[in-house]
Amino acid sequence: MKLAGIVGCFVAVLCAMPLQAADPLVSRAEVEGGLKKSAVYFREHVAVHGGYVYYQSLDGAKRLGEGVASPTQIWVQPPGTPSVGLAFLEAYSATKDPVYREAAEAAARALLYGQLESGGWTNSIDFEVTNSAKYRGGRGKQKGRNYSTLDDDITQSALRFLIRADAEFGFQQSEIHEAVEYGLAALLKAQYPNGGFPQVWQGPVPEQPVRKASYPDYDWKTENRIKEYWNMYTLNDDLAGDMTDLLILADKTYGIPQQDSRYSDALKRLGDFLILAQMPEPQPGWAQQYNYAMKPCWARKFEPPAVSGRETQDVLFALTRIANHTGDKKYLTPIPAAVKWLRGSLLPDGQVARFYELQSNRPLYMNERYELTYSDQNVPSHYGWKGREALDRIERDAARIAAGKPLSGSDSKSPPSPDQVREILKNLDEQGRWVTVANKTPKVGQPKFAQDEPYISSEVFAENVTLLSRYLTSIK
Question: What pTM did the predictor assign?
Answer without folding.
Answer: 0.92
